[in-house]
Specification:
The protein is of the alpha+beta class. It has one domain: Jelly Rolls (Sandwich), CATH 2.60.120. The chain is built from seven helices and 16 strands. An eight-stranded mixed beta sheet has the order 1-13-8-15-5-4-3-2. Strands 6-14-9-12 form a four-stranded antiparallel beta sheet, with no helix packed on it. It has a two-stranded antiparallel sheet with strand order 7-16. The relative contact order is 0.22. The model has no long low-confidence stretch (mean pLDDT 93). It comes from Cucumis sativus (Cucumber). GO terms for molecular function: metal ion binding; phytanoyl-CoA dioxygenase activity. Keywords: Iron, Metal-binding. InterPro entries: Phytyl_CoA_dOase-like. This is Phytanoyl-CoA dioxygenase.
Amino acid sequence: MGIVPNLTSDQLQFFHSHGYLVIESFATPDEIHAMRNRMEHLLHGFDCSTSSVFSTVNQQQSTDDYFLQSAENISFFFEEKAFGEDGNLKQEKELSINKVGHALHEFDPVFKSFSDSEKFSGLLLSLGYKRPIAIQSMYIFKQPGIGGEVVPHQDNSFLYTEPTTCTGLWLALEDANTTNGCLWAIPGSHKNGLVRRFLRGDKGVYFDQPSPTYNKKDFVPIEVKAGSLVVIHGDVIHQSFENQSPKSRHAYSLHVVDTEGCVWAQDNW
């Protein structure tokens, strides 16, 4: 028996209307435990001398060679506020990392096994994908007290195909709420199309348009329990705020594009 679609008509209707969808209990407690344990192991072996700082607030300035090369390996990125004035970490590395990416789904057996599971295939089949491929993956920590802000953006800006096909798959590995930095989105904003692109050229990376100004009142919080998956349309405007709470907000994120009838843009980052 082949892969079968696993979204209901009500779920699809909500997704197409709002631009996002929450699927509760998408990951089992055992799967969550396996991914968190695996990341703990990876962090233990991480050499702090090879890393970078990640920021969406200053994305053009912080996109260095280390970041660009991370598309094809497993790389570690620190929080902006992880370092003191002396240039040293304020606390242990496990509480200083912003994220690990961008090819966990390719090179780590635990994350690859989960990312290649049939439940993802059924979900993508429901969304109309013909030949989906995960183009990047991230383990996001949203550290207590210093977890960085992710500014309003669209995933299609960074992972552009013609026609656009990017979908974000954001799995909560811990409860995510308005206190510890959950996702926020503007319902229906995907219907307005792509606002701008993040391009890579001879002189580095840059946005082709300035960021629009968004009304904070248009955003709604997406509070979820650990194990819930948030499916995000590539054109929906979404963000998350800085985590100033004493509790982390771990998540595993995949971004998927279609490879049938679509062309990958050569000027993607």
